[in-house]
Here is the input.
Amino acid sequence: MSAWREARLVFRQQLRLSWRQPVWAVLALIQPLLYLALFGPLLRPLTHTPGFPPGSSWSVFVPGLLIQLAMFGTMFVGFGLIAEMRYGVVERMRVTPASRMALLMGRVMRDAVVLVGQAVLLIAIATVFGLRAPLLGLAAVLVIVLLLGISLSSFSYAAGLKLRSEDALAQLLNSLAVPLLLRSGILLPMSLAPRWLYLLSRLNPFSHVVDGARAAVRGDFGSGSIAVGFIAALGLAIAGVAVGTRTFHRETN
Amino acid sequence: MAAQTNQPMVEARGLGRTFRTRTGDVEAVAGVDFAVQAREVVGFLGPNGAGKTTTQRMLSTLLAPTSGEATVAGCDLRRNPVGVRRRIGYVAQGGSTNPNALCDEELVLQAQLYGLGAEEAGRRAADICARLDLADLGARQIKTLSGGQRRRLDVALGLVHGPGLVFLDEPSTGLDPQSRANLWTHIRGLRDELGTTVFLTTHYLDEADALCDRILIIDHGRIVAEGTPDQLKRRISGDLVIFTVGPEAERARGVLAGRPGVREAVPHDGTVRVTVERGEEGALPLMRALDAAGIPVASMQIARPTLDDVFLTLTGHSLRDQPAAEGRRPS
Here is the structure.
C-alpha cells in the first residue's frame, strides 16, 4: 500500500529532524517533572480525604501527569506545521503524487513516538519518586497516552492548516487548554469535586481517559474504568485522524 | 510517458481563477488560453499580481481553477490531478526546504515521494546535484547554504524525479547577478540536454529575453501578447534605424517617409530616426535611397526595442513601476 509507504517516509524524515534537536523533546519533560517534584508531595496528606481514589498519592498523580504530557506535548505541534508551510515544505510535498493522508500521518506518527518516549522517561523518574505499578497497567497507560497523542496531534495539524497563523492558533489552543485541564481531573481527581463539577467533568472525554489511566496504574483491571478510558481515547484518536485527514484533503487539494 | 511528440505539454482553455475576498471577488486570472509545446522554454512575463503564480499553481494542481480546463503532460487537470502530479516538477517562488534538514535527505525524500525506490532516489539525487553544482553539499544543513545554492536546491527538488515538464516560479528572484547567470545556464541545459519542457514565470525582461523560446505577456490576469522575444519586439514597436545626416535631416525625412516598410521617419538633432518593421532588412534600401538623393550618411545604427518598450506599448505602464499589489495569493 503506497500511502503507508509514503507515511513512513515522511515519518522517518520528521523523526530525523526531531532527533537533530532533541532539546525540545527534553524541554517538554521539564514541566511534568516540576509538577512531579513540587506538586506531587502535596497530595500525600490528601490520600485519607474522603473521595480520594484508592492507592498511593503517586499512583493517582502520575497517570494525571502522563495524560497532561500527552495533551500538552502534542497540542502544539500545529505550530511546527505552520513553520513548514512558511518554508514551502508542505507545498513541495503537495505537488508530489503522495497521498494527502500520508503527509499528515507521517507527522502524527513522529509525534506519537516522541510522546511515548517521553512518557516512558517520566514513568521511570516517577518510579524513583516512589511510584509502584504493575507492568501490564503501565503498558495500558502507554497505549492510552499513544492514542491521545495521535488524536491531539491530528487536531492540532488540522487547526494549523486551517488557521495558517501562529497567532490565531495560540489563541485557539489557549482557550481550549485551560477548561480541558480544569475539567479533566488531571491535577486533582474529580472524585473530590462537588457533584455539579463532577457531572460537568463527565462530559469531558479526557476525564474518562484520566480515570482509565489511574485504574490501570493501580492495577484495577476489573473495574471497567480502563475499558471506558481506552474507548474514550480510541474515540478521540479516530475523531482526530478523521478531522485531520479531511482538513488535509480539503486544504491541500 | 504521456504527452508525446505532437501533443502540447500544457494546454489551457479558458483557465481562470477568482478569489473571494471580503471586499468582493478578485479575478486573478481571467480565463487564459495558451499552449506550451514539448521541449519548449516558455516564459510568463508580467508584473507582480498579473496572475503568473496563480496560473502556475492551477496548472500544478495546487490551486483549483474556478473556470476553464487544462491538459497538463497529457492528463486532464480536473479529472486526473494525480496523473499531472506524477509527470511534472514544480519550483515555488518562496523556497521549499526545511532549514534544519540536510540537502540529501530532502532530495531523496522528494524522489521517494514520487515512488522511486531508495537506491534509485539516491542515484537521482546525486545526478541532479552534480548537474546543478550542488555535488559537495549533500551532507550540509540547508540553513548553512548560500542564497544561490538554496535556490538551486529548490530547482533540484523540482527535477529530482526527472519530470518531462517543469514549472519554475520566479527562478532567479533574490539572486546576485553571478548566481542568476549560473542558474540560467542550468535552465538552458534542462531543455538542451534533458529535453525537459520548461514553463517559467518572471518579471525580469532580461530573464525572459535570455531564456525563453516564447513569451506570454500577462497583465491583470489576461494574456496581452505572445511570441518569440524577437517577434514581440518587432511586432509591437518595430526596429529603429537611425541615420546621422547632419543638416540634411529634414530633407532625409522627406526622402524616407512613405517608402515601403517605413512606418515613421522623424528628424531629430542631426539624425533621422526611422521606424521600420525589420531593421536588418529595411536599413540597406533606405541607405541606398539616401545615397541616390545625394544625402551623405555619416553613420547608421539599428536599435532594437527592449521588452520593456514592448510592455509599455502593450499595457500602457512599465514593468518596473508596477506596485506589488499581489505577492502570493491566499489559497
